[in-house]
Design a protein that fits this description.
mainly alpha
Length: 222
């Protein structure tokens, strides 16, 4: 199988991750969850129960795509750094059970809603548990971009400027996660809303590049 074809396979897996991630982490929660208002959130989940179930299912499918992704990427990137490729795979694999633990919090809430026994307190507990585990997942979602970005920079299989975005984005994820722990009023800093933007550019950009062009066979080009 050519390197270009291997890249396209990785690109379509990446596209599946992006689409399910947007649905389960952004669109569905925006329709269901009212921040700091568990009563409204519960009402939304009851009224749009099928969307709530789809959000959970979408999260599981997202995790499946994410698990497969580094293996498909490593098929053409590992030649440029076997240890970096192994680290990329390890960080993703470790993140999967953590993400599933986060989704389990909503799964248990869905059972109580289906049985008509859900209380407002259940929503608060499920949201707290979900946020805890998804915060842990966020560490891995950011950390895996470092070896991935480094391999892109070294190989040129994908445009190197996207590799730079991935590396910067990795540090952005970690800054967003750890910044509030060490910097007072971190959330009020003017650049906070932009620290993960390079990651989005790098991930969506490399995804679309691979889908359209595949991976380059040599480490030449920019």
């Amino acid at each position: 199988m050519s390197v270009s074809t291997q890249g396209r396979i990785a690109g379509f897996v990446y596209l599946g991750l992006v689409v399910t991630g947007i649905f389960s982490l952004a669109y569905a929660p925006s329709q269901l969850i009212a921040p700091d208002d568990p009563a409204t959130t519960l009402a939304n989940m009851q009224e749009q129960f099928s969307l709530f179930l789809a959000m959970i299912a979408g999260g599981v499918i997202m995790a499946a795509f994410f698990l497969v992704l580094p293996f498909t990427l490593s098929r053409f990137l590992s030649v440029y750094g076997k240890n970096a490729a192994r680290l990329m795979i390890l960080l993703v694999v470790v993140s999967i059970p953590v993400t599933l633990l986060a989704l389990l919090q909503y799964g248990e809430l869905a059972l109580t809603i289906a049985n008509n026994t859900a209380q407002v307190e259940d929503v608060g507990a499920a949201r707290a548990g979900y946020r805890h585990w998804i915060t842990v997942s966020t560490f891995f979602w950011g950390a895996w971009l470092a070896p991935y970005g480094w391999l892109v920079l070294k190989s040129g299989s994908i445009p190197r400027w996207l590799g730079a975005m991935l590396l910067i984005g990795s540090f952005g994820y970690l800054a967003e996660l750890f910044g509030p722990m060490f910097i007072p009023h971190f959330d009020e800093l003017p650049f906070v809303d932009y620290v993960t933007k390079p990651a989005s550019i790098g991930e969506i950009g490399s995804c679309l590049w691979l889908v359209v062009f595949g991976a380059r066979a040599s480490n030449s080009g920019n």
